[in-house]
TrEMBL record:
InterPro entries: FAD-bd, FAD/NAD-bd_sf. One of its GO terms (cellular component) is mitochondrial outer membrane. GO terms for biological process: kynurenine metabolic process; NAD+ biosynthetic process. This is FAD-binding domain-containing protein. The keyword Ribonucleoprotein does not apply. Residues 43-302 form the FAD-binding domain. One of its GO terms (molecular function) is kynurenine 3-monooxygenase activity. Keywords: FAD, Flavoprotein, Monooxygenase, NADP, Oxidoreductase, Pyridine nucleotide biosynthesis. The gene is KMO. It comes from the Eukaryota.
Amino acid sequence: TRPGITMNDCPESAQVHRADFADIREAKIVKGRSINLALSHRGRQALKQVGMEDTIVSKGIPMHSRMIHSLNGTQSPIPYGKKGQVTLLMQRLDTPHSAETYSTTKLNFAHKLLNWSTETGAMTFLRADGAKEEIQADLIVGCDGAFSAIRKQFLRQSRFNFSQTYIPHGYLELTMPPINGEFAMKPNYLHIWPRNTFMMIALPNLDKTFTCTLFMPFDEFENVTTGDQVIEFFQKYFPDTIPLIGADALKRDYFRLPAQAMVSVKCSPYHLSDKCVLMGDAAHAVVPFYGQGMNAGFEDCLVFNEIMDQLNEDFSAVLPEYTRVRVPDDHAIADLAMYNYVEMRSHVNSKWFLFRKYVDNTLHMIMPRTVIPLYTMVTFTRIRYHEAVKRWHWQDKVRHYIVHSSLYKGL
Ligand SMILES: Cc1cc2nc3c(=O)[nH]c(=O)nc-3n(C[C@H](O)[C@H](O)[C@H](O)COP(=O)(O)OP(=O)(O)OC[C@H]3O[C@@H](n4cnc5c(N)ncnc54)[C@H](O)[C@@H]3O)c2cc1C
């Protein structure tokens, strides 16, 4: 649900306001905050399992390729994978709650978790009317995001590993309006303006706008303090976007919100006895450069469900097994997202990168089972993330060998 709505992720405050932890479908959208998410194979498989794939996918915009915008305004597409391999762009707010259709499910919004007991499993919530409510649960599934209140109790346990890393970049979002009721740029692409140490991307929305996200070191954001400096900066690095966003809107919207921080969180184990388990960003917040955060969270549910089936829903066996299986994969996607943070803003500019992509795709065509490009493994398959990384390193060696021996023979 984050971070497009007015919800308070900070459990410290002793108050819960009406908008805090509210029903996402009724929450107010904050202009300049992200509302779209790329949904790919892993997320779709989880949705399929709960009978929601078609409903959700029908509301998505398919994206086939990256579109690289160079400084001189030329645009060159880099397809993601084979024909038919698409990522779907979803609106965060447009998703119905299928859980609501089950008579055994009760959704409580505007309940802020204050604390819970690792001994009894009792949870204390603060309601919007100021009253506290205690709830006892057989199993607590902590899906309360990167700054998880549930995870706080894990930090007090011996042998719980935890790390969090803020990257030096922040992000800021701008809106590119439609032109004559149509998208201002080609809609079925992830548009990228890679500029080495920073970049901008643009993703289409159902209302024919694009959300443009500028990722840049905080220091650089601090150097741009006036409307004229914004225009000067865009003139230098993203000149083609000025007429599309509009100079006045750019000057205004750039300062609407401060740049937002991005954090990567790793921890282990994901469970605490047979009482509590972490999923989604609470277990593994990743930087957004692989478009996998939500997908990995959805896959957590799928893996958990598979293990529940295998182990006859015995929580004392399921929870440790879920940790064993899932931790290496989530840690791998956290690392890959960090890797893509450099690839997207810098490598896509290089001829060597494009050549490597070409060799990978050619090898994949010749040996589709043996060589699979990393992006394809991550985005369009359910190959475990950590296995995808292993295969990638192995494939890298094979490619290296082929390229170098061809060059040698050519000489
Ligand atoms: C700029 C950006 C772009 C992204 N793009 C993509 C993308 O394209 N594709 C993709 O797969 N992922 C993307 N992500 C990642 C994705 O947004 C997250 O991985 C996903 O939202 C995590 O879902 P979650 O349910 O685990 O946590 P959250 O979405 O953070 O939800 C946590 C929920 O817990 C509630 N909560 C928190 N504390 C408490 C408390 N004390 N009591 C009660 N409730 C509480 C919050 O209100 C919230 O509703 C992006 C992230 C960012 C920042």
